[in-house]
Amino acid sequence: MANPMNNISYGLFVVTTKNQAKHNGCITNTVMQVTTTPNVITLAVNKQNYTHDLIMESKIFNVSIISEKANFELFKHFGFQSGRDVDKFDGFTDCKLASNGLYYITKGVNTVISAKVIKTEDLGTHTLFIAEVTDSFIIDEAPSATYAYYFANIKPKPQAKVTKTLWRCNICGYEEEVEELPDDFECPLCKHPKSDFTKITV
Asked: Closest Cα partner for 45 from 37, 56, 34?
């Protein structure tokens, strides 16, 4: 049965922050504006995520809103490896420093929001950061990528399994890749006939 929660519409974001020693960022779908006056957003981050620890320490973060121009490499870079193991900004050039001293992403995003944490809520596995927007600007007019758009257009589709047919000689192990062996086929190694071959699909 389908999960009704999957029908909630999500955006996709690169959230960036730092501590005294290191910049880091991660992919999330949990940013939401809650008020406009004052301009406040929320961000939920798993406590096991390295970015969570850095936001708890610095109390500031940037949100780069991912657009439909993004490619899968952006998701791999910020979503498929941990900042505890690698420096995600070492050699990464599609970024700039914002006025708050944190990186934001410059390619495959359309908007940047800088925020300062004003309150936190413990949600068990996650912390909800309630933050005041300190700056925001648009860098591209491309539409924002939704979670559904990501799955339909950005995430690579599973490759169809390619099968091939082999005929294996039961005597010497020689393999011939062909759909059907001719009736008069003879093993080129041991000279045994087709009747001594087994058809195998791999």
From this structure: 56
